[in-house]
Amino acid sequence: MNKLKLVAILSTTILPIDGTYTVKTLSLEERESIVKLLMGVPHYVGHPDTKILVESFGSTKANSNLFSGLAIGESALAFPIKQGVSTRKDLGFTEHQNVDLSSLDLRIITRIDLDMLENHLTYYQKISDMYADS
Questions:
Q1: At a CB cut-off of 8 Å and minimum separation 6, what does 125 contact?
Q2: 27 DSSP 8-state letter
Q3: CA distance linking residue 84 with residue 89, whole number of Å
Q4: Beta bridge partners of residue 107, listed in sequence order
Q5: What digits encode the pLDDT tens for the residues 5-33?
Q6: H helix or E strand, kind and range, residue 99
Q7: 67-99 CB burial, b ≥16 within 10 A, e <16
Q8: What is the pTM of this model?
Q9: Once rounded to an integer, what is the mean pLDDT over residues 122-127?
Q10: By 3-state DSSP, what share of the chain in percent is helix, strand and coil, each rounded to 5?
């Protein structure tokens, strides 16, 4: 998580802008590190328990309820309710579901520049081919 440009906290994966993204569910160790970076980061979380949780880590309510998306190089942290724990399947909503950190996944969503990635992959493939030929 080097040089993470965290710009938003979300309740789920939201991608309002076309682009290429990486999405990674965090391990327990990564979760402990990332929550320390939430101070002052705006959140777009409406679920009551999740909202209380992210605000306890220092996240503040965004000026708008509409998340406008990520620019290339920016990341968001999503706090979705874990599959199998969510009441959405049975009730159609989760608004009144009580959750704590153990019932949430934490996912880093980062918008990447596909052209830059393809250039890096081509470069590394050339280096790999060069060593394979020697």
A1: none
A2: P
A3: 9
A4: 25, 78
A5: 999 999 999 999 999 899 999 988 888 88
A6: none
A7: bebbeeeebbbbbbbeeeebeeeeeeebeebeb
A8: 0.76
A9: 70
A10: 35, 20, 45
